[in-house]
Amino acid sequence: MKKFFMIWVIALVPVALRAQDVGLGEAAERARRAWFAHNPAELIAESPRVLVQLPGADPSVALGPDQAVALLADFLAPSREVEVLVRAARQVEPGRGYVELQRRYQVSGTQDVRSQVLLLGYRLGDTGWILVEFRVVG
Fold first, then answer.
1. Number of domains in the chain
2. Pairing of strands 51-53, 128-137
3. How far apart are CA 47 and CA 66, in angstroms?
4. Angle, vertex CA 71, rays to CA 65 and CA 73, nearest 5
5. CA angle 124, 127, 128 (to 5 degrees)
6. What is the pLDDT of residue 6?
7. What percent of the chain has pLDDT over 90?
8. Stretch 123-137: mean pLDDT, rounded?
């Protein structure tokens, strides 16, 4: 009986991890939609604290949701999104995952299309994946 139980548990672990990856994929899609709509409040949502790193700025300490939303809103203000794609959503260890978004945007008053990579770090909480880190690369 004990041997059967161990085989059953071992068989279910990959299923549980795949289910968590599906949830992370959903979190990635929510983040993509929020960024495209310039809605940082939706992006931050349930996060109690978020580490934010933007180009040209020193890494911040983890910010409360209101501060993080304000910082990201200021960052987004002078731009218009052309396209935001989910490039990756992976669990890197149990309960920790990352999402990579590719952003194509125009700065207000120009026709130039620029691109950036957004890296989002998540932790699995009681209510699902929670954003804990946000970095803009490039």
1. 1
2. parallel
3. 10
4. 100
5. 40
6. 45
7. 78
8. 97
pLDDT attached to residue 1: 56
Query: Given a cut of 60, is residue 19 above it in pLDDT?
Result: no
| DSSP codes, 39-52 | -HHHHHTT-S-BEE
Which helix (H) or strand (E) is 59 found in, with range?
Answer: none
Q: Taking a C-beta distance cutoff of 8 angstroms, is the pair 43, 71 a contact?
A: no
pTM for the whole thing?
A: 0.82
More confident position, 16 or 38: 38
Our CA angle for 20, 83, 112, nearest 5°, is 145
DSSP 90-107: EEEETTEEEEEEEEEEEE
